[in-house]
Amino acid sequence: MSQQTLTFHVHGMHCNACVLMTESELGDLPNITNVKSSLATHSVQVTGDFGDKTIEQIAADLTIPLKPHGYTVSVERHVQVKKWSEFKIAVPVAIGFAILFVILQKVGLVNLVGSGNVTYGTAFVIGIIASLSSCMAVVGGLLLSMSATFAKEGDKVRPQLMFHGGRLVSFFILGGVIGAIGSAFTLNASATFILSLVIGLVMLILGINLLDTFHWAKKLQPSMPKFISKHAHRVSKFNHTFTPLLVGVVTFFLPCGFTQSMQLYTLTTGSFLTGGLTMLAFALGTLPVLALLSFSSFSIKNSSKSGIFFKTAGLVVILFALFNLINSLVVIGLIPPFFNF
């Protein structure tokens, strides 16, 4: 058995979830003994027995399990083309959303952003954006992997219901636990402000990453420790009656920056109920797309208009981040009120 270590370029990587996804999928191949992906260089290093295949044939083989998730492996580096023209559509749409947001605030129909607070409406909208972003690639991959495992036995509906039910319940309970932990550490005004500032900055980085234009921001995005994420991802490979329920639970610990920003916020609530409802609202926002993914091959990532969508979503997330950063500064008294909502 002849082992080789080769490095390939990966097209389609956007965040830390992509690192976990590529390592997990390629690591499951029978002839691969070690895989290490890099978001900084958009590359993957693989060690295994490739026989007499050429490096181009190996790249094609590695692409097969990754293609459904929107990745391709190549020998040569893919030149990223920055499509600035997509902003011509994305900017007006995002501005339209901002105007609608202000109108809804004025008439009192919805309160998406309060004074320094992330409300349930905000969490729900962020959940919708997160479900369509590359940050949810791992959750979608878990769902598809689990679905394929149970579909072989002709069981399609029950696992899906258990997955989504387990996810919603666990997000409420675990979000509540984080909120309760926050109550044990009484945060003064300065500590609350600092944490709110961190949340706003995390959201800002996520928004910039969604624009897919400024690649330096990818290095700044926080992530769940890889050993936790890897163990969480492998749960989907088990074929057990309660596996779908467990997979739904572990999605709480996967490397999605949007999820982590909401988890940070729940810590500031100091309340089991508020923290639980915030995470539940976020999970409900992700539900429609994940439910659609359960019964189809839906993926906005592979759409010809995905660039426009992600740039629009990125601008909207940046708006949310700026609103919350400004409101946090207002609450602590550093600046006068900007918005009279």
How would you briefly describe this protein structure?
With 341 residues, the protein is an alpha+beta fold. It contains twelve helices and four strands. It is globular.
Helix content: 55-70%
- How many domain units? 2
Structural class: alpha+beta
Q: Total number of β-strand segments?
A: 4
- Give a short account of the largest sheet: 4 strands, antiparallel
Q: Trace the largest sheet across and list its strands.
A: 2-3-1-4
Specify the overall morphology. Answer: globular
Output the keywords.
341 residues; alpha+beta; Alpha-Beta Plaits; 2 domains; 4-stranded antiparallel β-sheet; 60% helix; globular
Task: Explain what you see.
Helix content is 60%, strand content 7%. It has 341 residues and is of the alpha+beta class. A 4-stranded antiparallel β-sheet has the order 2-3-1-4, covered by helices on one side. Strand 2 (32-38) and strand 3 form a beta hairpin. Helix 4 (120-132) runs parallel beside helix 11, helix 6 packs parallel to helix 9 (243-250) and helix 7 (189-211) packs antiparallel against helix 12. The longest helix is centred in the middle third of the chain and has 28 residues, at 157-184. It is globular and about 70 Å long. It starts with a strand and ends in a 10-residue tail after the last helix. Mean pLDDT is 76; it is low at 112-116.
Note the topology.
Layout: E1 4-11, H1 16-27, E2 32-38, E3 43-48, H2 55-66, E4 72-74, H3 87-107, H4 120-132, H5 137-151, H6 157-184, H7 189-211, H8 226-234, H9 243-250, H10 257-269, H11 272-294, H12 306-331
Antiparallel strand pairs: 1-3, 1-4, 2-3
Helix pairs in contact: 3-12, 4-11, 4-12, 6-9, 6-10, 6-11, 7-10, 7-12, 10-11
